[in-house]
Amino acid sequence: xxxxxxxxxxxxxxxxxxxxxxxxxxxxxxxxxxxxxxxxxxxxxxxxxxxxxxxxxxxxxxxxxxxxxxxxxxxxxxxxxxxxxxxxxxxxxxxxxxxxxxxxxxxxxxxxxxxxxxxxxxxxxxxxxxxxxxxxxxxxxxxxxxxxxxxxxxxxxxxxxxxxxxxxxxxxxxxxxxxxxxxxxxxxxxxx
Length: 192
Description:
Elements: E1 3-5, E2 10-12, E3 22-31, E4 41-48, E5 60-61, E6 73-75, E7 89-94, E8 104-111, H1 114-117, E9 124-133, E10 139-144, E11 154-163, E12 166-176, H2 179-187
Parallel strand pairs: 1-10
Antiparallel strand pairs: 2-12, 3-7, 3-9, 4-5, 4-8, 6-7, 8-11, 9-10, 11-12
């Protein structure tokens, strides 16, 4: 197991100096029994350039846009319930294909149709994000969300970013009561 992070902590992913080319970002969660209907969480990635804004609307990768224009970020598909063990949704990142203008990839999770279903992150348990090296299969880091997020319907779980030639990961854990629309507005994504 890799480094266990707390909110706000950063870690250098290639600490051993070995080249790092491809990673998988896995996200998981369980719905509490009090949630009622299945809780459909949707993972997404916002590929950001200068000013921490999305490079283009096509650089917002989610269940309706599974691949970024350059193929560097790919979503493996939508899990509608969060049932089962292990990652519920995954994003595959080819670090070598991310252009020089890409400064970070932000990973978000939102509750699909949260307002109509009356659901929020207070009804979600065991939520986490982890980063794995695809070459070795080794988990490099993990961040487990551990606070009560009643009223929040979307969340930035973490960010993969490049600094000084190294790839790092930051545990964010920032909730939004305004859902995916709030995250999109902050990062300049037009979800129209």
